[in-house]
Amino acid sequence: MPRHVAVIMDGNGRWAKQQGLPRLLGHRAGADSVRETVRLSGEWGVEALTLFAFSTENWARSSDEVRGLMALLARTLRREADELDKNGVRLRTIERIETLPTSVQKTLQQTIDRLNGNRGVVLTLALNYGGRQEIVDAVKSLLVSGEAVTEESLSRHMQTAPFPDPDLLIRTSGEYRLSNFLLWQCAYTEIYVTPTYWPDFRREAYLAALHDYQRRDRRFGKA
C-alpha cells in the first residue's frame, strides 16, 4: 500500500457538461468524491493524501466560478469537520493561502486547529498552488538559511516536508500531464491515469488505482 497518495482532481466541469449542469455543480459533486477518498485512505492504511484543490492558474477562470469554488471550499470544510475529526484526519495546506478570501482563510485555520491533535491520515490541500513557484520559494528559503545546496536540503525547504514524496499520483479525466503539481516531489512517483472524471471517482476507481500501484516494480533507477 502506498504511504502517500497525491491526486489531481480533474474533470468536474466536463462531468457537469455531460449531465447538462452548470460547472459549479460538477465541483459540488466532486466534493463527495473527496469525502469518500479521504475516508477510504484512512481505512486502507494510506498515511498521507494530498489533493490538488486549486492551482495558481485557476484564478484565470471566470470570477463567478472562482467565487463559487471558494464558497464551496469553506462550506465543505464546515460540513465535513465532524466527520474528519471522528475519523482522526489531520488537515494541512501547502502554498499561498494568504491570497485566498479572508473568510476562507479563517475557516481553513479553524478546521486545521480543530484537527491538529489527530493521528490518522494527513490530508493536505494544495490551494493557490504551483509547483514551479514552490521550487522557487524553496530555493530562496534555502539560500537565506545558509545551508549547502543539495537535493536533501532543498527537499527540507519544500512545503511538503517532512512528509515523504508521493508513492502514487492519480490523475483523473484521462489527461497525461502533471499540470504544475508537485514537480520536485514526483521525480520517482508512480503515475496512474484514469479516464474517470473526478465526480465519479469513488471506491472502485480508487481500488483500481491502488491495485495497479501494487503491481508496479519500483526500482528508482536501479537494475
Topology, element by element:
Elements: E1 4-8, H1 12-19, H2 23-43, E2 48-55, H3 63-86, E3 90-94, H4 102-115, E4 122-129, H5 131-145, H6 151-156, E5 168-171, E6 190-193, H7 203-214
Parallel strand pairs: 1-2, 1-5, 2-4, 3-4, 5-6
Provide a descriptive summary of the structure in words:
With 223 residues, this protein is an alpha/beta fold. It has one domain: Decaprenyl diphosphate synthase-like (Undecaprenyl pyrophosphate synthetase). Helices cover 45% and strands 15% of the residues. Strands 3-4-2-1-5-6 form a six-stranded parallel sheet, with helices on both faces. Strand 3, helix 4 and strand 4 form a beta-alpha-beta unit. Helix 2 runs parallel beside helix 3 and helix 3 packs parallel to helix 4. The longest helix has 24 residues. It starts with a strand and ends in a 9-residue tail after the last helix. 32% of the residues are buried. The mean pLDDT is 94.
Strand order of the largest sheet: 3-4-2-1-5-6
Number of domains: 1
CATH topology: Undecaprenyl pyrophosphate synthetase
**Main sheet characteristics:** 6 strands, parallel
Helix content: 40-55%
Named at the architecture level, the CATH assignment is 3-Layer(aba) Sandwich
Averaged pLDDT:
94
Oligomer: single chain
Secondary-structure-based class equals alpha/beta
Overall body shape: globular
- Taken as a percent bin, the fraction of beta residues is 15-25%
The topology string of helices and strands comes to: EHHEHEHEHHEEH
CATH class, named Alpha Beta
The rounded Rg comes to 17 Å
